[in-house]
Structures are given as structure tokens and as C-alpha cells.
Amino acid sequence: MEKEDLLVKSRGAAPPLIFLVTIFLQIITIFLQRLKKRRSSSAEQNQLREQIKELVREAESFSNPSTFAQAAKLRRMAAAKEKELLKISKPALRFSGKCRNSKAWLPNLLY
After folding, report:
1. Which residues contact 26 (CB under 8 A, 6 or more apart)?
2. Which of 2, 40, 73, 81 has the fewest Cβ atoms nearer than 10 Å?
3. Is the residue at 34 inside a domain?
């Protein structure tokens, strides 16, 4: 009996603490990787938004019937840029749906 008590007392809290620290560090690295991806994509998204605003402004400046074709072309270009912006932003939305279906559920808890 005394030997068993000594074994239980000698284990201490080190193994569970090491396990928790390891899990915590893994979660932090995954979070930082996703944050880095989000920042790089947000710079690209901001650039696309600026291009869209500029195209819409240019299209609005053409108000004559003779410049209607140019305005329509600029509006189509702006619509294409908006679709591209949606394609860029969709992958970020897909991660939220994978939480239940994925085997790697731990990284998906962050989002």
C-alpha cells in the first residue's frame, strides 16, 4: 500500500502540465498562422475594393449617351472585380463549416 501511495505522490502535476502547455502552444501557432493569412488576404481585398470604387467613380462620370458604352464597360469590370473579391473571401467562410465534419476539429475551434 505504501509503495502505491509513493508512486501516486511522485508523479505530481508535471505530465499533465506539460501536455497542457504543448496543446496551448499548438493552438497559438495555428492561430498565428491563420491571422497571418487573414492579414495578407485583407491587403489584397482592400486593394480590390479600392479598384472597384475607382471603376465605379469613373463609370459614374460618363453621363452622356455617347459615352454609355465606356460606362457599361467600366461597370462590367467592377462587377468582375467584385466576383474576384468574393472568391478571395469565400475560403475564410469555408473554415467555419468544417468544424463538425473535419477530423482536425481542434484548429477549427478558433473560428
Report:
1. 106
2. 2
3. yes
CB-neighbour burial class of residue 3 (10 A; exposed 0-12, middle 13-18, buried 19+)? exposed
Q: Which domain covers residue 45, as residue numbers? A: 15-108
**Rounded to a whole number, what is the largest CA-CA distance in the chain?**
99
- Note whether 60 and 75 are within 8 A (CB): no
pLDDT at 92 (0 to 100): 53
Q: Is residue 9 part of a domain?
A: no
For residue 34, count other CB atoms closer than 10 A to its CB: 15
Flag whether 4 is in a domain. Answer: no
Q: Which helix (H) or strand (E) holds 46?
A: helix 14-61
Number of domains in the chain: 1
Q: Per-residue pLDDT tens for 31-78?
A: 998 887 776 667 788 888 899 999 999 988 887 888 888 989 999 999
CB 102 within 8 A of CB 55: no
Mean pLDDT check: name the lowest of 4-8, 90-94, 103-107. 103-107
